[in-house]
# Entry
Amino acid sequence: MGVRTGEQYLSALRDGRAVWHAGRRIDDVTNHPGFAGAAHTLACLYDRQHTAEGAPLMTTEWQGERISLSYLPPTDRAHLAARRRNTEIWSDATLGYMGRFPDFCAHLTVGLLDAAELLATGGAQYAANARAYHWYCASHDLCLTHALNDQFYDRSKRAKEQRDPDLMLRVVRETTEGPIVRGLRNLATLAPLSD
# Structure
């Protein structure tokens, strides 16, 4: 897929996701008055990656694929400057009023890629997973989010001793494919508008 268009981004948001606001389920975040503006702003920025002016400043060729500069693993000062310029384009488009852009978590996947050898000390599959995840996200130009903070719970007790253990995210089982987690986090910026 490579660098995505605005319509590809908006189409991906129409996936039946469960987003709730004021006690009501939102069927389509791309048309809801509380989310449509932000969704369409991001779509315009994805489209900018395909313009004659934007493409050279927002995308690059890497491993035979055109990707967002947000996903480029920097190897020199020029890469860092290009990635910064890309971030500035996303920020300037909203005058800095949008708290999270797709480039934020894209940088986190680059960090995972950078730490692949360290992750391999726990098992070769962890390094392979980090590399595969970064490549999948980069080659699909995904808009990711991250979740922070456990709900309020009794910090003097372990997860299994909690009145409601689902108030905190925890590993419930390990598989050959990776851990299975259960529980929740209470803050996931950009979640309604991310892949």
Summary: The two ends are 15 Å apart (CA to CA). The chain has a mean pLDDT of 91.
